[in-house]
Amino acid sequence: MPAPELVIFDCDGVLVDSEVIAARVEAEVLTRAGYEIDADELSERFAGLTFTDMLLRIEAETGLPFQASIIARTEELIDKRLGGEVRPIEGARNAVLSVKGPRCICSNSSTKRVTLSLTRAGLMPLFEGLIFSSLEIPSKRTKPAPDVFLYAAEKLKADPKQTFVIEDSVHGVTGARAAGMRVIGFTGASHSYPGHADRLTEAGAETVIRRWAEFPAVLAALSEWAEPL
Asked: How many of the other CB atoms lie within 10 Å of CB of 218?
């Protein structure tokens, strides 16, 4: 395989250590609403999903109804916490800069939230005009659907088969694989849990890294080889 035509980064839990912040807020809100769960369990079960998709799954599982206002209220609380607390994951900036070809972000978060997090973390200049939110593409289908990955590849004129994706969630890996892309799993954020790497591998990640320092060599090595059968 030649050098990647495109490298796609997830944002939350990959570039910025935001998943743990969002999980704490969402767990608190859900527990008050009658669905008792802590942040660790929430991260393991629902990481990578939008809060709306999370609520739909819980409602289907339990029959517990949620007020419509819970979504907007929770999103506001998360944005407030992110604006004051989110930090870049160690080594993320150098990892992004090591990519010599086209790069972008594909996220289930809104462009507004991604921009907020990247700005707070000092990474926004690396992705100006290169943020794709599944909530804002024509289909509005979120990961694990492949739509946002395929949309980004189309806009940046990249062959999905020549594209690498870095993801921290099973849903993200599943979506990227469904798009025909190759995936590197990442477990270096605070919300990582025992068995995290195994679950990413089972979902289709070719390899999993825990530190961004490993990324340039791993990307170079995988790029030398065609995708395994």
From this structure: 16
Nearest to 174 by CA among 195, 194, 200: 200
Specify the length of the chain in residues: 229
Place of tokens 């743990």: 20
Q: Rounded to a whole number, what is the distance in angstroms from the first to the last CA of the chain?
A: 14
Given the structure tokens 């509005």, which residue do they identify? 140
Q: Which of 149, 163, 176, 199 is nearest to 43 (CA)?
A: 199
Contact indicator for 179, 152 with CB cutoff of 8 Å? no
Q: How far apart are CA 63 and CA 155, in angstroms?
A: 40
pTM, rounded to two decimals: 0.88
Question: Which residue in this structure is represented by tokens 């070719």?
Answer: 206
The SS3 assignment for 30 reads helix
Phi, psi for residue 104 in degrees, rounded to 5: -165, 180
Q: One-letter amino acid identity for 152?
A: A
Q: What are the phi and psi torsion angles at 8 (to 5°)? A: -110, 125
**Whether 114 contacts 105, CB under 8 Å:** yes
Dihedral-angle region of residue 72 (phi above 0 means left; psi in -120 to 50 means alpha; beta otherwise): alpha
Q: Could you give the 3-state DSSP secondary structure of residue 224? A: coil
Q: By the 8 A CB rule, do 43 and 191 touch?
A: yes
Query: Tens digit of pLDDT for each residue in 61-114?
Result: 999 989 889 999 999 999 999 988 999 999 999 999 999 999 999 999 999 999
